[in-house]
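Q: How do we represent a protein-ligand complex in a form that can be generated token by token?
A: Start from the inputs.
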Amino acid sequence: MALVTTTEMFKKAYEGGYAIGAFNVNNMEIVQGITEACAENKAPVILQVSAGARKYANHTYLVKLVEAALIENDIPIALHLDHGADFEICKSCIDGGFTSVMIDASSESFEDNIKITKEVIKVAHPLGVSVEAELGTIGDIKEDSGNREIGSKEIIFTKPEDAKKFVEETGCDTLAIAIGTAHGIYPKDFVPHLEQELLTEIKNTVSIPLVLHGGSANPDSEIAEAVKRGVNKINISSDIKDAFYQQLRKTLGN
Ligand code: G3H
Ligand code: ZN
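Then emit the structure tokens for the protein with zinc ion bound:
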């Protein structure tokens, strides 16, 4: 099977009221682990690559790993750029065979976020590449000598009225929203709180799939509730890396 775009995947998920798992990949073992698990569950999957992973593993190596996974597993797989910081990296991934990109101009002003997102859409859509955008700010976790604490990035919750205007003006395919999650594994004993009511309000103002970033380490019940209320893509990165490194340490220690 060839790489697919996310269009068909999201159409089914939106109509069926479920979410697609989007997992960050940066090496062979993680690509294998995710795609084998998805094949066992007959689940479509989005494999996503950050700028850091692209720098570490090289664009071509990552594309070829994903192509190998397509040969080995009979499931729909989309290849997505995660948190593309500017037009250039999005364009490079579009030209380099990705079927979906995220332009994350959420740290810019509302107007500039719209402008930059539109520029990416202008080159992506004619080639059938889907575009995810972000509005609001996801939190972050700082890790210092193994101690985790809530980072300095303040969560700026997405405003429903802004989401409506943003989606209408840009024509983005999916929208990442901030409802209380943070990127990374939360500090011990910290229980994240997701603003589920806010999610419902946003869902009622836009008619495109919503994306939940910072999916790792949230209680399953919160994730399930978010899906019930309209999230169609769940991003998971840290949980996978954590599992990989823990097992690696165990194996090397034996
Ligand atoms: O963009 C990637 C995700 O939002 C992953 O967040 O590391 O908390 O799972 P996470
Ligand atoms: Zn993210």
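The pocket of glyceraldehyde-3-phosphate (ligand 1) is lined by residues 24, 82-83, 183-184, 213-216, 235-239 (CB under 6 Å). The mean pLDDT is 96.
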